[in-house]
Amino acid sequence: MIQAISDAQFNELTASGVTLTDFWAPWCGPCRMQSPVIDELSEEMEGQVGFYKVNVDEEQETAREFGIMSIPTLLIKKDGEVMEKLVGFHDKNRLKDILSEYI
Fold first, then answer.
1. Of 11, 33, 51, 87, which cross-links 42 as Cys (Cβ 3.0–4.6 Å)?
2. Model pTM above 0.90
């Protein structure tokens, strides 16, 4: 399950374990394509990876902090450290392979 989070929640929720945060906006076409892929992945990897979404229109501080200039951007963290920053659409198999490296 993907949890929508705010800037205030970001650091605490992504501080431990492996997390994927999707930075997106409702008007973004590629974001709408990426969303169902992440939904599927969140079900398959439940308990192994924390999945979060940050709407950059409503929550701009975290996006600014991590230099996110294009969306969708996927930020993969392990124990609070950024491991990958993926810009644009990515298919499920590629994302699963990347996440599996950090589990």
1. 51
2. yes
